[in-house]
Design brief:
By secondary structure, the chain is of the alpha+beta class. The protein has a domain at 92-184: TolA/TonB C-terminal domain. It has helices at residues 2-24, 36-48, 94-105, 108-114, 152-163, and strands spanning 78-87, 125-133, 141-147, 174-184. A four-stranded antiparallel sheet has the order 1-4-2-3, with helices on one face.
């Protein structure tokens, strides 16, 4: 038995010295495998790049295209317009609505991006929301949503876009009922 114990001690001493010497030697950092999300994002980016022509003689920037637009295959332009607004307890004049409308317009890109989640995008349609704005202004509280455009993801996206609106401070807490109309031109 004493001989077997000394063999094990020798074995572990050899293993530990090998590990210690491997740790002490400088070398390149091991490559970390990409996560599935990183690999997927990189693949999507590469797939979205336009294919380079096999024998391009012009030195044109790949994102510039001087060809005439093909109206038969053009995508419709998406826009929205203010459909209505009611300010609870206010005079509801164009002048009193303007600061609120301006704040919402600053989020127009975020609101338009949400349209990709609509169930039937060719239809167009309206979206209504009730917003509570505190006296400090800033982000409102979304209290109600009205739409027939459909899609839970669309409603979540629109709610998030309205939560990002930065309203100016008000004299008193205010409830806004606001609606917009999406149109495909």
């Amino acid at each position: 038995m004493p001989h077997q114990a000394s063999l094990w001690r020798g074995f572990w001493a050899l293993v530990l010295s090998g590990l210690l010497s491997a740790c002490a030697q400088p070398g390149p950092a091991p490559a970390h495998p990409k996560s599935e999300a990183e690999a997927g994002a990189q693949a999507a980016e590469q797939a979205s790049r336009p294919a380079e022509p096999a024998h391009s003689t012009a030195s044109v920037h790949p994102l510039l295209d001087d060809r005439e637009p093909d109206q038969a295959h053009a995508l419709p332009e998406l826009s929205f317009k203010h459909l209505g607004m009611h300010i609870g307890g206010e005079s509801n004049t164009a002048e009193s609505k303007q600061p609120y409308l301006s704040a919402i317009e600053r989020q127009s890109e975020a609101l338009l991006r949400c349209y990709r989640w609509v169930d039937e995008p060719a239809r167009g349609g309206s979206f209504g929301v009730d917003l509570y704005v505190g006296t400090a202004g800033g982000a409102p509280e979304v209290r109600g949503v009205r739409t027939k455009l459909g899609g839970e993801s669309f409603q979540k996206c629109m709610t998030a876009a309205f939560l990002a609106v930065d309203f100016s401070p008000t004299k008193r807490p205010t409830v806004l009922s606001y609606s917009l109309l999406f149109a495909l031109n």
